[in-house]
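S2.1 Query sequence (D-alanyl-lipoteichoic acid biosynthesis protein DltB)
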Amino acid sequence: MTISQYEDYFYIYILLLISVPAIILGIKQIKIKYYAFFATIFMVILTIGMENQMLTIGVFLLWEMALIKLYKKVNDKNKKWRFRLFVLLSLLPLVFNKISGFTAFGIIGFVGISYMSFKTVQIIIDIYDGNIDEIKLTDTLYFVLFFPTLSSGPIDRYRKFIDEINAEIPRDVYINDYLLIGIKKMVVGLAYKFFFASLIYIAWLKEIPNDGSIFSLVQYMYCYTLYLFFDFAGYSNMAIGTGYLFGVKVPENFDKPFVSKDMKEFWTRWHISLSRWFGDYIFSRFVLNTLKNKKYRKKKKNVYRVGQMITMTTMGIWHGLTWYYIAYGVYQGIALALTDDYLASKFHKKHAKNKHYQFLQIFVTFHIICFGMLIFSGYLNNYI
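Output structure tokens follow.
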């Protein structure tokens, strides 16, 4: 038997039971990480199961841990080809997972392979950058498997996570900065997912007729956007809250995204941990490496545009190898590139501080967001 994370009340019940010992340890000022590691193994087994997926995740972990330990030994800042090779090798299981759905074998992988792959690639990049001095196998496994964020994030950073799980947390700090905040996050997450998202799905999304009309299309665009936000933000808040209970300040993932005035601001408010990961490890690295070449320095705007297109298209492909995920990535890349031009325009600079203009920005940006979510949903298949 397997259960999906944060998808039903039975999982929440198990989650609450397994969190009680962590809370007791935190209040008693006893390090939580040792109990939390075994709790993570238990919850991973419960989520993934003991059959094919468990074997697959075992092979994945052996492969990734071997790569990380080996790269820590052979890392050489002057040999970029070696760094790139190890990044590609680390991504191989994820690539195989994405293309396996188009083979006769069917999808080969396990719940959470995408987010685990991001974590392992991140470690290799940080080793190359000289940000990691030591790799402890159990701590690294704990980071990769950390059960609250197993299937859909948020994505934490290795050094921050390792520092937190090994820190001594005083009782009053745990109660005020971890326990109370964690409970609040859990309550908000439960309300978002099991009330608002469920209500939108039952009362609206499920009732939209699949009749190919423009009215149904527009309804679905708005409805799916709101449903996705409350469902995903609900999941994220529960994951963050659980992390806090276990002594880890999991990064925020949503910050009122629908009040964004432009698409650049939107990506600082929506799926924050993912957009920062892509920004730090793909966009920034591409731009900095490209601008090292003198002939491109006078074309910074074009470099940024190409970087945005590469980053967002990669994000689309990461979601899946279907036309609408890839189109969603391209759409977001174009939206970001056009946003740069818009923010640099004399018209925007002239009106930027006007409140009525700001409300108009929010209105327009919301509709750009909604159309992107419509592409992402795959609903347009019904109209092609």
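The radius of gyration is 22 Å. The chain is about 70% helix and 0% strand.
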